[in-house]
Amino acid sequence: MKVLVLVGSMRTGSLNRQLAAIAAGMAERAGATVVRADPRAIALPLYDGDVEAAGGLPPAALALAAQIEACDGLLIASPEYNYSVPGVLKNAIDWVSRAKPSPLRGKRALLLSASPSLVGGNRGLWALRMPLEALGVHVFPDMFSLASAHAVLADGALADAALATRLEELIGRWIGEGRRLTTSA
Known about the structure:
Blueprint (H helix, E strand, L loop, with lengths): L1 E6 L7 H15 L3 E4 L12 H7 L3 H11 L3 E5 L9 H10 L11 E7 L7 H13 L3 E2 L4 E3 L2 H4 E2 L2 E2 L2 H24 L1
Parallel strand pairs: 1-2, 1-3, 3-4, 4-5, 4-6
Antiparallel strand pairs: 7-8
């Protein structure tokens, strides 16, 4: 299974970037081929139908659509901004959704979040599910929200062994399901 890792945060020291790096390593250990999208690559102009009509999709949107098309699944680590999806990630989804045929339709996604809050970004993941599912993405039923992330992310690892095991098992189940569905298709 080939997995594209997307991060919904532009910040270099982002907790979600750290979580995505850990999850990518776990996915590789589970046998997936992992491609990491540069979070800065999703910094697209705000979606504007007039811009699209005048010149088509921006090169960055076409490049992201091609990366998505080339993968079987999306591993997305995203913070929660005001109980919802960060604008940069939602904007990227909006642009990519305009590519024809849709590179998102039929992809499998696993959603992760990391936050210093006690909720762990969970509300943002629920908001992220809606546009993805509307675009035909099969979002894995289980999600991973890391609460108090600043206290448990250290030196590129999860300091809490139970949480690390839970995340690794979740990724293993997601990849296993993806393999079964890909080979039976």
